[in-house]
Amino acid sequence: MGWYESGRRKAKVLPSKELAEHFKHIKYTQLNSDVFTGMVVADWQQMICEYREAKKVQGVTEGTLYEIALSLRNFERLSGRCSSKQITQSVIDQFILQRGNEVQRATLNKDIRNLKAFVNWCRENRYLNGNIKLKELKTAELYPAVKIRILLALGTGLRRGDIDTLKISDIDFERNCIATTSRKTKKSMASRPVSSEIMVVLSKYVCSLGVGQEKLFKTKFNHRIWRKVCVKAGLRDLKFHDLRKTFCSLLAQNGVSTAVTQRLLEHSSPNLTNKVYTNVDPVLRQSVNQLPIERWLRK
């Protein structure tokens, strides 16, 4: 089909006469916007059919069309076959509340996204006014206990077993420290320092726990969940103990002395700290880097 816009002829090839007629209606509405200034009243079925045809014109896949239709059918089931005048903010909010009782938040957000796209299309075609707002809900964080375990391992160097045995009463939020006892070495540290950033996250986690819970973690370390988290992060071969090694290596790379690192890791010998847990001593690395190797190579 062809049309004139700003004095120039334009054309668009469409796969069927039905789609061409639909596209013609849309272009006519756009080019004669001074005529169509008010809200157009349409029934539910008319809006659904036109929206589906508009999506086809945009080249949306059949799979996406099915997902859109599914979300709109759920809206129709819970809110009824609303006309354009009956779709209001309160109707949308009520649908989200009802649908939220049926499905997980991720599925609900998918319905909200599809419904939002439909509402925006209706607004562009003057079926709805501009007052309706839809916003996706925040999804609950997956495996919050795993996140806290990782932060504690990276931020304190504690072993997995010692992290698992922590109690809420061991945490001092005012002084930003925790009291720990090593199951392996039997050594205790009454005030192990923890960064303020980790303590903020830890505080939020503790506030989300059930009333009367004493242990920081209700369940033991789950190897299946850990593997799933590692695969998703692209670290398939990562072991939890590697986090303790990372803590030690980062301290060494930032110039922390072996004596301090040994105390934080509760090692019996500084040789163990240097041999097993750290990379090259940063002081040694800095000394080697001062050699004029580049000048030698030019000669």
Would you mind describing this structure in some detail?
By secondary structure, the protein is mainly α. The chain has 3 domains: 87 residues, Tyrosine recombinase, N-terminal domain (DNA polymerase, domain 1), CATH 1.10.150.130; 98 residues, hpI Integrase, Chain A (Orthogonal Bundle); 61 residues, no CATH class. Helix content is 54%, strand content 7%. The protein has a 3-stranded antiparallel sheet, with no helix packed on it. A hairpin with a 4-residue loop joins strand 3 and strand 4. Helix 3 crosses helix 4 and helix 6 runs antiparallel to helix 8. The N and C termini lie far apart (75 Å). The mean pLDDT is 84.
For the largest beta sheet, what order do the strands appear in spatially? 3-4-5
Oligomeric assembly: single chain
Q: How many runs of DSSP E, i.e. beta strands?
A: 5
CATH topology of the largest domain: the name is: hpI Integrase, Chain A
Query: Can you identify the CATH class of the largest domain?
Result: Mainly Alpha
Order of helices and strands: EEHHHHHHHEEEHHHHHHH
Low-pLDDT residue intervals, each spanning 5 or more residues: none
Instruction: Name the CATH architecture of the largest domain.
Output: Orthogonal Bundle
Strand content: 5-15%
Radius of gyration over C-alpha positions, nearest whole angstrom = 31 Å
Q: Give the overall shape.
A: elongated
C-alpha end-to-end distance: 75 Å
> Helix count, per DSSP?
14
Structural class: mainly alpha
Biggest β-sheet: count, sense, barrel? 3 strands, antiparallel
Mean pLDDT rating: 84
CATH superfamily of the largest domain: Intergrase catalytic core
